[in-house]
Amino acid sequence: MLKLVLCCVLSYSFAGFAQLNDARRITKTMCSEEFHGRGYVNNGVEIASQFIAKEFKKIGAKPIKRNYFQAFQHAVNTFPGKMLVQQNDRVLKPGIHFIVDPSSGGGKFDLYPNKITIATALNTQLLEEELKKMLLEKKFNAISFNSSRLSADTLKKLEALKEELAHFIPVIEIVQSKFTWSVASEQQQFPIIQLQDSVYQQDSHYTIHIDAIELPNFTSKNIIAFLPGKNKKLAPFVFTAHYDHLGRMGSETYFPGANDNASGVAMLLELARYFKANKTERSIYFIAFAGEEAGLLGSKHFVEHPLFPLKNIGFLMNVDIMGSGEDGVTIVNATLFEKAFKQLVEINDAAQLLKVIKSRGPAANSDHYWFTKAGVPAFFMYTMGPNKNYHDIFDRYEALSFNEFEDIKKLLIQFCQSYN
What we know:
alpha/beta, Aminopeptidase, Glucose Oxidase, domain 1, 2 domains, five-stranded mixed β-sheet, 20 strands
């Protein structure tokens, strides 16, 4: 009897180890430099879409139609080539010393910025006077200001101001906070540059060379696979995760997006692998969305052009940032769907899987949002833990622990199987 128990335990341990190795392989591959940050330079998002479709095919999850793809078009601003910011004689490092705003314009410039106070920047009359003075004196040809230690409301006002100013003049913003990049669908006339206070030198001259290209009709693809269930009367369950990330900021710098969200795609594929081997009563759909970082574009397109009836969905679970979890997970929409949240917590308590499942209200912060708006019950799950790399060049495979990956997978499997 002891021999049988030991065999079962060892068999389960080896299976779990093999599955985690596969999740690691998927994550590591998707955030490698060959995928170019799964963005729009070098068509990284297309490379990723083909990889994911091949993984679904290997698993045996079926396409809904002829293939796994649902294409859509959108505008995006890209930085495919030169990314030079030189302060006096020092060439600054992109992603470490500076980033460009995702809506930044490009070009070659010799800049002599006029540093203004925040009070001047936020006072329309004072700002206009300063700009007129610059125009007359021709001493300065750019604006700079320091936005360190400001409130969220003030920063929001400055964000709008930067974009307004960039229609007429280059802008340099001095910051002390961690860089956080994103994706923009439009391009300003002039560059907007964020510069770390630790390298900033007052009264400096800047040599700028930024290649920025706006693509008005870029084609991205959602990837949809499904596994048919035994009981066609049961409402299907849907698992989703976005696979796009931020791409490249110049030819030499890319954003790997390991935790966000190569790890979520790895979870999506691991769930498909499990349910292919362990057929459930209900059918299960798996959707990897594009365009999430550009404004939830892929999920919006799907909801507006669904490939299966939205009203038939029993529940949707969107996963993101699956590479840690030491401090538990957060569930967005928990307060909207209290019964489902209670069920999730009960499963976790019974199996002692995660440290905590935190409740959060509705938020338009990932692809669940459009489904919720359309009346589909949905959760968005993301992990909490010591890894704080987010939308930066340090969100790498090597920084992920995967400490709770298997426990999260068990929780999601049991929730899917027991949801009613």
